[in-house]
Amino acid sequence: MLKDDLIANNPLGVFKNAANGNDAPPRMGLVISRPGLGKTAILVQIALDNMLHDKQVMHISVGQNIGKTKSWYDDIMADIAMGASQEEVMAVKDKISRNRMIMTFNAAAFNRPKLEERLNDLIQQDIFKPVCLVIDGLDFAKIDRPLLEDMRDMQRASQLSIWFSAVSHRETPGEIADLDLFDTVLSLDPDEQGDGKIFLNTVKDSTGCVEEGKIMRLDPVSMVVWG
User: Fold this and answer.
1) What is the C-alpha to C-alpha distance for residues 80 and 9, in angstroms, rounded to an integer?
2) For the chain, how long is the longest CA-to-CA vector?
3) C-alpha span between 64 and 107 (Å, rounded)
4) Which residues have CB under 8 Å from 201's CB, separation 6+?
5) Which of 67, 177, 191, 227 is the most exposed place for a label (fewest CB within 10 A)?
6) Is 184 helix (H, G, I), strand (E, B) or coil?
7) What is the CATH number of the domain that holds 153?
8) What is the phi-psi region of residue 211: left when phi exceeds 0, alpha when psi lies from -120 to 50, beta otherwise?
9) Residue 157 φ then ψ, to 5°
10) Nearest C-alpha neighbor of 115 from the set 78, 167, 70, 150
11) 133 sits in which H/E element
């Protein structure tokens, strides 16, 4: 089955199992890169991995509309399922799309109380109960540590996995403050030789899934992780 193949062949599946073989605990993760290298594509692939495992994901898009966010999922799905028949791809898309909800925020309106209020409305009405949030578009240059501490507290209290993306304008993720609040930090880096290759580097992982320094490679056109 196509769905089983997509699960088995997803390199980001390494973040699902801890070193002892058990499911990895919920985490707060961060994907860092310079502008335009593929942060959103990585978040979408993390979300798709959860969706393929029949887990519900809330994609929170800060400053972008639903249509643009949805197109990321359509494009990445088409790329990871390349070679499969259109009927197979559509069948899987229809099934797993039920496991995703997109929520938009204006940048100035994003905070823990408003996010929790909207999430709790969905949960209490049995409409949607995510186990993973991906938060894309939050400007780390304009937020302060208390907001991230609030999100960390929320992550631990709710036992959700929460993944963020952040822009770094230098060659090292050290520009981003507050890395201590994250369990996993991934960095997208172009090849130093300038040949178009992009690598996904594990800067930090305290969950026991992978060793720090693990490197995966991206297709520079589709932004799909090869492994």
Assistant:
1) 9
2) 53
3) 10
4) 186, 187, 188, 189, 213, 214, 215
5) 67
6) strand
7) 3.40.50.300
8) beta
9) -70, -35
10) 150
11) strand 132-136
Per-residue pLDDT of the chain (227 residues; tens, 9 = 90+): 899 999 988 888 888 877 676 788 999 999 999 888 899 999 999 999 999 999 999 999 998 899 999 999 999 999 999 989 999 999 999 999 999 999 999 988 899 999 999 999 999 999 999 999 999 999 998 889 999 999 999 999 999 999 999 998 665 555 676 899 999 999 999 887 767 789 999 999 999 898 888 999 988 888 899 87
Does residue 57 sit within a domain?
A: yes
71: containing domain: 2-11+26-187
Within a domain: 36: yes
Threshold 0.70, pTM exceeds: yes
Residue 126 located in a structural domain? yes
Amino acid (1-letter code) at residue 29: G
Which residues touch 187 (CB under 8 Å, ≥6 apart)? 31, 32, 33, 168, 173, 200, 201, 203
Residue 206 belongs to some domain of the structure: no
Contact predicate 216/225, CB 8 Å: yes
**Residue 211 has which token pair?**
């060793």
Q: Number of folded domains in the chain?
A: 1
